[in-house]
Task: structure prediction
Amino acid sequence: MDADLKKNIMSSGTSLVGLICKDGVVMAGDKRSTAGGQIVMDKNADKIIPINEYLITSGTGIASDIDMLQKLAKAQLKIKELRDKKRPTVKEAANLIAAINYKSIRQPAMIQFIAGLMVGGVNENGITELYSVEPAGSVMKVTEFDANFSSGMPYILGLLEKSYKKDMTMEEGVELAIEAIKAASERDTASGQGVDVFTITKDGIKHVSKQKVEKVYKEHN
Result:
């Protein structure tokens, strides 16, 4: 079951990247939303979604599943915060999302969730963290970089294996994230149209770049 989920999610179409930098985390995604990886349904899709003031997620898989998973996480985290009288950590948020995924695919249902998420945020002590939640429900703390199970993952990881370096600045991280999404868009037909980039530091979450990429068709004589 786990292998089938991963195979399905990688064909669903998107490109995501998360990078650990010296002073925080950089997360980026493309802007194209497709149906079956073949028909472009939206050229300005937001794939990095704020859950609250200190937490953002980016998802790959079935769009409705990602949307519902993010809404469930937002509601459950708010309930936990009210009950415990303190806000959940980034790790607790990632594990909550993983538990929802795990429960979904292991209980009788016509259709289970098919969604993987990257969860990034800043804790109350100012420490930033990034986690990768796979569609089968496991959680991995990202210590360098990740692309979750996006269809652009093979191209992104290949580039980052060569170009990523530890303790890079946030500015270097932003530039590398943009380069990674653009590289994936050149080869992955389900990715493209532009790049969204967010930074997470001890000072909070910022939307630092939104680039639109369009093809220009010229008539040749």
About this structure: The chain has a mean pLDDT of 82. DSSP finds five helices and twelve strands in the chain. The domain at 2-211 is CATH 3.60.20.10 (Glutamine Phosphoribosylpyrophosphate, subunit 1, domain 1). The first strand starts at residue 16 and ends at 21.
